[in-house]
Amino acid sequence: MKTEKATFGAGCFWGVEETFRKLKGVVSTAVGYAGGTKENPTYEDVCTDETGHAEVVEIEFDPSQLKYEALLDVFWSNHNPTILNRQGPDVGTQYRSVIFYHSPEQKAAAKVSKEKIDQSKRFRSSVVTQIEPAMKFWRAEEYHQRYLEKRGQSHCAI
After folding, report:
1. Which of 29, 33, 30, 16 is nearest to 136 (CA)?
2. pTM exceeding the 0.70 threshold for the entire prediction
């Protein structure tokens, strides 16, 4: 089975991971940090909002069962991509809306998808989601992996 990776930041990574983990065709998920400058950042480092990292989920998926475009649809449906550096009560660049692409095809699909969402007027404001090349993914501490599942929760309570 040939798999691909997708990496998304859409606020607190606990709920984002739980949403993607349940999809048919997803082989594995991991939460972590991407897009920053500090080597091997910790959660405490990222929470300072000084490292430039976003909380992200890295998804390994089987493209014969799940298309990248379907992952993009889930991404857009599970957060507000019009608020800069914030999701719900979580504020800071680590909570930004961002798509890290792993190939030219993913970049193109993400751009088309973003334009469609923006033009659909589904949101009152313009989409601020960043589309950037996938950088080094730093796996978060083990206690963050499958955080909600370990606690018997399906989503973050606000």
Report:
1. 33
2. yes
